User: Fold this.
Amino acid sequence: CCLCSAYMPASDLPPVMPAACSVVPYTLSENDMKFVAPNGFTTGDQFFEYLRDHLDYLVREARLGEGGRAGGAVGKMMSVGLHCRVVGRPGRMAGLEKFLGTSLAG
Assistant:
């Protein structure tokens, strides 16, 4: 039996759990559901820019470490909530594809 929880709003990093349990941080901000929410994303480019800016900030924060001092690097994690019937639309998918290409390129 394996337990899994996807709701972890209190931290960017998953807590240490027993081997049979996995916790994946889930957020509504880095999430394609903002396409269907009032005042959310209207274009794939908005989604791309938001995800890119979020990742860029996390990378800078991780390199600085705790307390904002250089040399104290700490781990960071970013999860992106995706739903096939939301992000699967061609104009939306283009934004996700652009983000994946940019982020994987380093």
